[in-house]
Amino acid sequence: MAVDKKISELASGSPAQAGDETVIARSGANYKLTVANIVGYLGSPVTVANGGTGQSSYTDGQLLIGNTTGNTLAKATLTAGSGISITNGAGSITIANTATGGAQDFIVQSYGIV
Predict the structure, then answer these.
(1) Which residues contact residue 53 at a Cβ distance below 8 angstroms, ignoring those fewer than 6 apart?
(2) Mean pLDDT to the nearest integer, 13-26
(3) How far apart are CA 84 and CA 87, in angstroms?
(4) How far apart are CA 107 and CA 65, in angstroms?
(5) What is the DSSP secondary structure assignment for residue 41, as one 8-state letter?
(6) Under 8 Å CB-to-CB from 95, ≥6 apart: which residues?
C-alpha cells in the first residue's frame, strides 16, 4: 500500500512528464489527473490568471513589468539615459556611469532570483 507523503518530503527528481499521473481526493471522490490535463487547464505558458507570467521565452536582460491593460505582465528591457550604459547579460543587467567630469553618486541594489 502506498504511503501518503507531503510534497516537501518527496525527493527531487526529473521534471514531470505529460503522461505522469496523480490522484486528488475531494468530497469522497477520487480524480485522476495527468500532467497534460493540468497544463491544459492552466494554459501553456501558465496564464497570469492562473498564477503564471503568461510568458514563455525571454532574451537577456528582459524584465516583467505590470500592465494595467488586461492586468497582465509585459516583457521589457531597461533603456539607458544620458551618462548611463546598460548591458544585458544572461541572468544579469549591468548599469554603469559613462558620464565624464563631476562626481556621480549611485545607489545600486541587486536582487537575486531563486
Answers:
(1) 45, 46, 64, 73
(2) 76
(3) 10
(4) 21
(5) H
(6) 78, 84, 85, 86, 106, 108
Q: Are residues 71 and 92 in the same domain?
A: yes
Asked whether residue 10 is assigned to any structural domain, the reply reads no
Tell me the whole-structure pTM to 2 decimals.
Answer: 0.49
What cell was used for 103? 562626481
User: Which one-letter amino acid corresponds to residue 14?
Assistant: S
Residue 109 within any structural domain of the chain = no
> How much helix, strand and coil, in percent to the nearest 5, is found in the chain?
15, 30, 55
Q: What pLDDT digit, counting tens, does each position of 39-75 carry?
A: 777 767 777 777 778 788 889 999 988 888 888 888 8
Provide the residue range defining the domain that includes 86. 63-97
User: Residue 113 corresponds to which amino acid?
Assistant: I
